[in-house]
């Protein structure tokens, strides 16, 4: 399998274990690494967008 696909799969599995507070903490910890509009949305959808942004930066 593609290494990037494996990494994204791992992100999704980890996401399932995060509480709402955990998501807020994750967004806070990443700070200036991601755009502000992504940091301000700690919902499940927002966190997936945040993780996608991290994957895009790794390219």
From TrEMBL:
PROSITE patterns: DED. GO terms for biological process: regulation of apoptotic process. Residues 6-59 form the DED domain. It comes from the Eukaryota. InterPro entries: DEATH-like_dom_sf, DED_dom. This is DED domain-containing protein. It comes from Rotaria magnacalcarata.
